[in-house]
Amino acid sequence: MASPTFSKAGVTTLTFSDGESFPITRTDSKRQLRGIAMGGSVKILTLSSNQEQYIDLIFNQLTSTDITNIKAFLDDANINWSANTFTYTDSESNTFTVRFWNDALIYNRIFLNLYAVSIRLRVET
After folding, report:
1. Single pTM value for the model
2. Would you state the pLDDT for residue 51?
3. Which of 45, 53, 73, 113 could covalently link to 14 via disulfide, CB atoms 3.0 to 4.6 Å apart?
4. Among candidates 62, 56, 117, 53, which has minimal Cα distance to 90?
5. Per-residue pLDDT reduced to its tens digit, 66-90
6. What is the extent of the structural domain holding 108?
7. Is 116 exposed, middle or buried (CB count within 10 Å of its CB: 0-12, 13-18, 19+)?
8. How many domains does the chain contain in total?
């Protein structure tokens, strides 16, 4: 299996040193705000009738170099975190046009020079 990558023309391709951990979660949802009114009734506001798709990636053994490379990729003006799309190629060579969809890049040190990272990608259609 190939290592997963993030790529975009004009940006250095990011190849992860560790493959995704399984399972990889793919989610379909609608853009809705949900809440409960003062009287206890459920209120739903649908923002879009289109379904949205997300891919949740989990990496459990990334190096500090991987973390530096992820930050450099996201910081590139052609990506600018969530502002622009890029191509995600999974370990089975499937490609998706995606957008980084985390509020922040959170990486947990799990051992010496190894980190765990969760990344949410929004699939663009």
Report:
1. 0.76
2. 78
3. 73
4. 56
5. 999 999 999 999 999 999 999 999 8
6. 5-34+42-123
7. middle
8. 1
Both tokens of 66, joined, read 């991987």
Q: Which two tokens stand for residue 6?
A: 């993030």
Size of the chain in residues: 125
Q: What is the mean pLDDT of residues 91-112?
A: 91
Q: Which long-range contacts (CB under 8 A, 24 or more apart) does 99-103 make?
A: 99/124, 100/74, 101/54
The span from the CA of 66 to the CA of 77, in Å, is 19
Are 62 and 114 in contact by the 8 Å Cβ rule? The answer is: yes
Are 81 and 70 a contacting pair, CB within 8 Å? Answer: no
State pLDDT tens for residues 10-23.
999 998 876 655 55
